[in-house]
């Protein structure tokens, strides 16, 4: 019987190597990627059964990459494995595209359990996060607090917040520098952004960039 196929998306090489050693006895690791844009290119080619995804990745964050990937590969299960204990991150991911949410400090056995569960069509949430989700979102549901940014604006915002120049953003997204400038200055005008620090804080607030650990 063929092993379930996994794709690992994390920009920390040592973590990817550790996950590979942990999982390869039971699962087939079909590939690894280190940023969100690479994930969206490689996953449709490999068609994995499960993607294990870090939220804090360069070029395109895990939150937006996961959302886009679910539209491209609706049958692929996506597991979030992150340092972030932001419960709104967890709620948003689980509502829209993730099948499981774990913290990187979870035991290896918990990750294996989560993979087995999502392959059976279940949802898995690490207990610490599950308790807070119950308190914060089930008993007192709240709307998302995001500005209405287009997919392209979110991509531009993340890359600018990461410190890329407008020309570098244009190359990465395969669009013109003029288009990048249009999106940048429109966001700055609409949301009162004046400095690079404002852009970074706005990106964190809009959940396209993870807050510092």
UniProtKB/TrEMBL annotation:
Q: Which residues carry this modification: 4-aspartylphosphate?
A: 54
Q: Please name the Pfam families in this protein's record.
A: GerE (PF00196), Response_reg (PF00072)
> Any idea which GO molecular function terms this record carries?
DNA binding
All residue ranges annotated as the HTH luxR-type domain in the record? 142-207
InterPro entries in UniProt = CheY-like_superfamily, NreC/VraR/RcsB-like_REC, Sig_transdc_resp-reg_C-effctor, Sig_transdc_resp-reg_receiver, Tscrpt_reg_LuxR_C, WalR-like
Q: Name one GO biological process term.
A: regulation of DNA-templated transcription
Concerning SUPFAM superfamilies, the annotation shows: C-terminal effector domain of the bipartite response regulators, CheY-like
Keyword field contains Phosphoprotein = yes
Keywords assigned = DNA-binding, Phosphoprotein
Outline the extent of the Response regulatory domain: 5-119
Name of the featured protein: Response regulator transcription factor
Recorded source organism is Alloacidobacterium dinghuense
């Amino acid at each position: 019987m063929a092993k379930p196929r996994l794709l690992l998306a994390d920009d920390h090489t040592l973590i990817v190597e550790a996950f590979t050693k942990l999982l390869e006895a039971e699962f087939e690791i079909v590939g690894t990627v280190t940023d969100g844009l690479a994930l969206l290119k490689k996953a449709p080619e490999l068609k994995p059964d499960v993607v294990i995804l870090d939220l804090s990745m360069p070029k395109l964050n895990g939150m937006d990459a996961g959302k886009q990937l679910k539209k491209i590969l609706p049958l692929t299960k996506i597991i979030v494995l992150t340092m972030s204990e932001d419960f709104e991150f967890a709620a948003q991911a689980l509502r829209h595209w993730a099948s499981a949410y774990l913290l990187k400090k979870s035991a290896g056995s918990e990750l294996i359990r989560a993979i087995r569960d999502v392959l059976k069509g279940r949802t898995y949430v690490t207990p610490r996060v599950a308790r807070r989700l119950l308190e914060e979102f089930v008993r007192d549901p709240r709307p998302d607090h995001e500005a209405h940014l287009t997919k392209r604006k979110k991509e531009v915002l993340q890359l600018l917040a990461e410190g890329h120049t407008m020309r570098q953003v244009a190359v990465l997204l395969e669009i013109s520098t003029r288009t990048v400038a249009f999106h940048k200055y429109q966001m700055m005008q609409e949301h009162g952004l004046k400095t690079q620090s404002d852009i970074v804080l706005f990106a964190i607030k809009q959940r396209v960039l993870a807050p510092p650990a």
